[in-house]
């Protein structure tokens, strides 16, 4: 399929588009009854290792909502497990790591990712590209900081206290950890690129916990090592939550699109990342408001996004699990017919 017909890719390049492309972070799974049906009795990480299931779950929101992009069904910890780290995804909690990282010896025990160890992801991507037509396929990975936060905390955390303690207290251990994670992430994204994803998103979901100075010192070089070493021409999206003060630096890490949460209007965000496309920023909680409010907020996001060189409509973070899927379908239709 000629990629000029993929509206998402045209928007990323800042070309004219027939409509603003739209997809939703965390659109696969969670809010869909058909997802819960196919996942019944299958653990999260087990389901990620089954290409037929990956393909089915990735396609579910495309069929239902007619979004312009599919996001591969996987998780940011999949490459870590494939590299030999003992972890699981616990329902209702998230990733849980058996032996949290705190010393240089812990870091040195982390092995590189062998591309064959994520062959199931490549197979899923190949299956999907046979089905997707003009819908773009977005691959993804976690950025070094966000991955490190799970490995150091041992699981989800609110304030990332242990992570920051390691970063400030043992910068050599921190940098060695992030360098290893950058390598694993790069390998994971290259596998997806070789198998045929149209674009990739690097999720640095929790980078907004840092000041700009600390982000530039402790994180940006590692994210840049990922984003700067991807295959030539592969479109890149770089996203985090609470990153208003980091948008310029996240843009400098090397990306074509900067993802924006709901706190920063897209025209303001665009002024912080000159020349780049922006993605976001509808507050996911707006999905629970009366339709008139959803419509009004979506039109505001469209108007502000139109001031950037390119705009991809999305939420400011993931689809909440309680979301009524009908609202998402209606929202896609609204965006597609807005002009
Ligand atoms: O659309 C999709 O859902 C695609 C697949 C996808 C993606 C893009 C999943 C499946 N996870 C992710 C990325 C991901 N995973 C991120 C970055 C995006 C974001 O910020 O939301 C993060 C931080 C994770 C880590 C993770 N995995 C969490 C968050 C924990 C925390 O710190 O609060 C959770 C709950 C998971 C488990 C998970 N991943 C995906 C699903 C469907 C689930 C739920 C597991 C289940 O159904 O049992």
- Return Rg in Å: 19 Å
> What compounds sit in this structure?
coproporphyrinogen I
Record field, number of beta strands = 9
CATH architecture label: Alpha-Beta Barrel
CATH class: Alpha Beta
Approximate helicity band = 40-55%
Order of helices and strands: HHHHEHEEHHEHHHEHEHEHEHEH
Shape type: globular
CATH topology: TIM Barrel
Number of folding domains?
1
Fraction of residues in β-strands: 5-15%
User: Which consecutive residue ranges, at least 5 long each, have pLDDT under 50?
Assistant: none
Q: Structural class, judged by helices and strands?
A: alpha/beta
Largest sheet: 7 strands, parallel
- What is the tally of helical segments? 15
Q: Give the rounded overall mean pLDDT.
A: 97
**In angstroms, what separates the terminal alpha carbons?**
26 Å
Q: What does this molecule look like?
A:
The protein is an alpha/beta fold and 339 residues long. It has one domain: Alpha-Beta Barrel (TIM Barrel), CATH 3.20.20.210. Helices cover 46% and strands 12% of the residues. The protein is built from 15 helices and nine strands. The chain has helices spanning 7-12, 33-39, 44-48, 51-65, 78-82, 104-108, 119-131, 144-153, 161-169, 171-195, 212-227, 247-252, 266-272, 291-305, 325-336; strands at 69-71, 87-90, 94-97, 136-142, 199-203, 236-239, 257-259, 277-282, 311-315. The strands form two sheets. It has a seven-stranded parallel sheet with strand order 1-4-5-6-7-8-9. Strands 2-3 form a two-stranded antiparallel ribbon. Helix 13 links the parallel strand 7 and strand 8. It is globular and about 55 Å long. It binds coproporphyrinogen I. Coproporphyrinogen I binds at residues 26-30, 44, 71, 73-76, 89, 91, 94-95, 140, 146, 156, 203, 205, 318. GO terms for molecular function: uroporphyrinogen decarboxylase activity.
């Amino acid at each position: 399929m000629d990629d000029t017909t993929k509206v998402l890719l045209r928007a990323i390049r800042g070309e004219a588009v027939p409509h603003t492309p739209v997809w939703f972070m965390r659109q696969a799974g969670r809010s869909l009854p058909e997802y819960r049906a196919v996942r019944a009795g299958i653990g999260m990480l087990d389901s990620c290792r089954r290409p037929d299931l990956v393909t089915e779950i990735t396609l579910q929101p495309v069929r239902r909502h007619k979004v312009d992009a599919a996001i591969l069904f996987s998780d940011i910890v999949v490459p870590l497990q494939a590299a030999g780290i003992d972890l699981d995804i616990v329902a209702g909690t998230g990733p849980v790591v058996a032996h949290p990282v705190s010393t240089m010896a812990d870091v040195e025990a982390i092995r590189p990712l062998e591309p064959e160890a994520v062959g199931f992801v490549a197979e899923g991507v190949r299956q999907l590209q046979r089905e997707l037509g003009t819908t773009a396929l977005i691959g993804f990975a976690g950025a070094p900081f966000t991955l490190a936060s799970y490995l150091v905390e041992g699981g989800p955390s609110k304030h990332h206290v242990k992570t920051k303690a390691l970063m400030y207290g043992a910068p050599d251990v921190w940098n060695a950890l992030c360098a290893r994670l950058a390598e694993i992430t790069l390998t994971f994204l290259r596998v997806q690129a070789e198998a045929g994803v149209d674009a990739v998103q690097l999720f640095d979901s929790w980078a907004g916990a840092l000041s700009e100075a600390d982000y530039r010192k402790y994180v940006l070089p590692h994210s840049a090592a990922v984003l700067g070493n991807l295959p030539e021409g592969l479109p890149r999206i770089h996203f985090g939550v609470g990153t208003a003060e980091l948008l310029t630096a996240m843009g400098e890490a090397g990306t074509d699109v900067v993802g924006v949460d709901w706190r920063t209007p897209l025209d303001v965000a665009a002024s912080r990342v000159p020349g780049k496309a922006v993605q976001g920023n509808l507050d996911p909680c707006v999905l629970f408001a009366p339709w008139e409010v959803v419509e009004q907020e979506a039109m505001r996001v469209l108007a502000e996004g139109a001031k950037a060189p390119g705009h991809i409509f999305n939420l400011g973070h993931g689809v909440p699990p309680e979301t009524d899927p009908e609202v998402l379908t209606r929202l896609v239709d609204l965006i597609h017919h807005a002009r």
